[in-house]
């Protein structure tokens, strides 16, 4: 894909596999590169299938909450683009754009997952509601720093209740065909994709990270060729097709790398830092 000659004004970064090392850390080099970008007037926005609360500590650690003169400071694209919002230095979070999954569609999917004796995760704004608590939930809480708001139940599933921003079904240990089978049997009225190691993410039709960053860019009048995206997964390809410069991590699959403008080093080799510095250098 051809690169752009326009100066980059917005860099959207995926989180897991891109910003973070495999043990869920932000390296010192990546922190430094993000600081260099913001000092140069370039907005750095995290775009992830994660919810906002699972990104707040990352936004804080990167020093993005209160950047003088940066209108996108603290902004995140969450739930694959279903929720776009902004964290503020006083600890509050403002929803800027929101797209929910149809409630009846969501309830049907939950019933399918539970009938398969697996776990469904319902994400509503800042709340995370698993259908049961198990080893996956414990791992997710440790990895994201977010505790569940309760178990998925009548409060979420009752007819007339609002639909979630996202449903997520984790890999089934020992049953590798279960999640792909569920993905193939989803009802109409949703979009689904696999992130990470066969995590099934389900959102409203048309929702994608690209729509989230486009909403932010439209708020500020940033053109597509002034945006860049860095990622490692198939769920980043929408961003890649939407921006002027797309960068794949070396730890991405060959299929993802083939869709990028160029490829940086891996997430254990400070690949995001290298990508940011290359873009700042023009």
From TrEMBL:
One of its GO terms (molecular function) is phosphatase activity. It comes from the Bacteria. One of its GO terms (cellular component) is cytosol. InterPro entries: Cof, HAD-like_sf, HAD_sf. This is Cof subfamily protein (Haloacid dehalogenase superfamily)/HAD superfamily hydrolase (TIGR01484 family).
